[in-house]
Prior knowledge:
The complex is a heterodimer.
Chain A: H1 3-25, H2 28-44, H3 55-74, H4 81-88, H5 98-110, H6 113-123, H7 129-136, H8 140-160
Chain B: H1 8-30, H2 36-66
Amino acid sequence: xxxKAFKKELLSSLGSLRAFAVSLSGNRDRADxxxxxxxxxxxxxxxxFEMGTNMKAWLxxxxxxxxxxxxxxxxxxxxxxxxxxxxxxxxxxxxxxxLDLQDFEVALNKLPNDQxxxxxxxxxxxxxxxEAAEICDCAVGTIKSRVSRARLALQESLDISGPSDYGEDxxxxxxxxxxxxx
Amino acid sequence: xxNDMKSSNQQSKEQALITEKLKIFYNSVxxxxxxxxxxxxxxxxxxxxxxxxQATEKSDQENKSDG
Lengths: 182, 67
C-alpha cells in the first residue's frame, strides 16, 4: 500500500474513529488525544497493516489498546460522567433535540467500559459481532451478552430521565428525604 | 426486574429506540469537523517520511559513487 493510499484510507476513517474515541472516553479532549496517538502509531507501523483487510477495524484496535493502556497508567478505572457532561456542553447548544442527545450521552457513559464499547462497535460503528470480538479480543458470545446487557441498562437508565420529565419530578425525591406517610 | 413486566412488543420498541438514539449520537460526533491538527499531523508525517526516503536514496547514491 502506498503512503498516499494509506493516508487516504486513514483520513476516511478519522470521523468514525473519533466518534468511537468520544464514546469510549466520554470526553472530547481526551478523545482527540487518543485519536492523535492512534494516528501516530498507525503511521509508524503501517507496514504491519495487511492490504485488503479492514483498516477501520485495525485503527479501532489500536485506539482501544491505547485507551486501556492510558487507563492502566493513570489508574483511572471508571469514566466520570460529570466531567464528561460539562466537557460537552459547549457543543452547539441551540441545536434542536440536543438535550435529549445529552441525556443519552450521559446514560451511555454510565455503562461499564466493556458494555459501552460492545454496544457502540456493533450498534453504531457498523462492525459485525465477529469483528467487534476481534477488536475487543474476546469471544463472540461475550460481545453478544455485553451488547444485550448494555441495551437493558440504557433502557433502564433512560426510562428514569425520560424526555417527558424535564422539570421537577415528583417521583425522585432528593436522597435522604423520608417518605411522607401519615 | 422492571423489564420483565413489559410486553415483548414494548420491549423491542424500546430497544429500537435505544439503537436509534445511539446511532444519532454517534453520527453527530462522526459528522463534527475533523480537527485541523489531525490533517496537519498527517501531512507532517508524510513530509517527514518523504524527506527520509530522499535522504536514504541520496546516501545510497553516494555510497554507490564512493564504491
